[in-house]
Design goal:
alpha+beta, two-stranded antiparallel sheet, 8 helices
């Protein structure tokens, strides 16, 4: 669990998924006169190894360029899913196809233990830890909490956030920042049309 997932009170059972989706930071807005720098924690095999170690999902095994490409495909398909609205998530064949193609590289097996059942990765290589992210994705879809994980609707942000609002209808990661910027922009555009 990262500092961000703790700060924004993301449930533990979604924290790895939240952190994985946010390894790509596309924010491109100015805040207090400072341009937010875009970044990608998975821009290299070494970056993926470091991120997995920080998350305690990896043990420092060597990640090959092909493994990096597999991880990036997984992240891309998950971000596409989280960017779509709840109805599109259920109906879009292309989103489902991309997810199926990406997650097939991370097979899981159900394993019984004293407290019940858990999903365990079948992989035993350097990417086995990403199976934990896939298991979180599956479990949260099954229990309905995945509907609370969304992508910010701001064209200048695209940060994944956990919607803690009671009705579950938030559109922006931080209403005071992204929400306010979007509302101000819309207001100014309306004023220009009427002027």
């Amino acid at each position: 669990m990262s500092k961000d997932s703790r700060k924004f009170k993301v449930p533990d059972d979604l924290a790895n998924l939240y952190d994985f989706a946010n390894t790509l930071d596309l924010r491109r807005f100015m805040h207090h006169g400072v341009q937010h720098p875009q970044s990608d924690a998975l821009s290299s095999a070494a970056g993926l190894t470091a991120w997995m170690s920080e998350q305690k999902l990896g043990d420092g095994k060597k990640i090959t360029p092909a493994m990096l490409a597999t991880a990036l495909q997984l992240r891309s398909s998950m971000r596409d899913y989280l960017q779509s609205d709840l109805i599109e998530r259920q109906r879009s064949k292309s989103i489902a196809r991309a997810l199926n193609q990406a997650t097939r590289h991370f097979p899981l097996v159900a394993e019984a233990h004293d407290g019940g059942m858990t999903l365990r990765p079948v992989r035993n290589d350097a990417l086995a830890g990403l199976s934990t992210v896939v298991a979180e994705f599956y479990n949260s879809a099954a229990n309905g909490t995945l509907d609370r994980l969304k992508m910010c609707a701001s064209d200048e942000c695209y940060r994944v956030f956990y919607d803690r609002s009671k009705p579950g209808t938030r559109r922006w990661c931080v209403s005071a920042l992204c929400g306010n910027r979007e509302k101000t922009r819309t207001y100014r555009e309306r004023q220009q049309v009427t002027a």
